[in-house]
Amino acid sequence: MTDQTLTLQDIIADIHTLNEDLGMVERKYGVLSETFYESYQRGEEPEDES
Predict the structure, then answer these.
(1) pLDDT tens digits, 1-22
(2) Cα–Cα distance between 25 and 5 in angstroms, integer?
(3) Distance between CA atoms of 30 and 47, rounded to whole angstroms?
(4) pTM here?
(5) CA separation for the pair 39, 47 (Å, rounded)
(6) pLDDT of residue 50
(7) DSSP string, 1-50
């Protein structure tokens, strides 16, 4: 097992990458993640695209 130490810069870069990925998913499906999560919490499911 190798010892990998993350720096603050590594963590910040990862956060920015995740935010960019999340933005791509939100644009693809046309819904903000907060809106999707609230619907999911209420047991609502998105319409099946097929």
Answers:
(1) 566 899 999 999 999 999 999 9
(2) 30
(3) 13
(4) 0.66
(5) 12
(6) 53
(7) ----PPPHHHHHHHHHHHHHHHHHHHHHHTS-HHHHHHHHHTT--PPP--
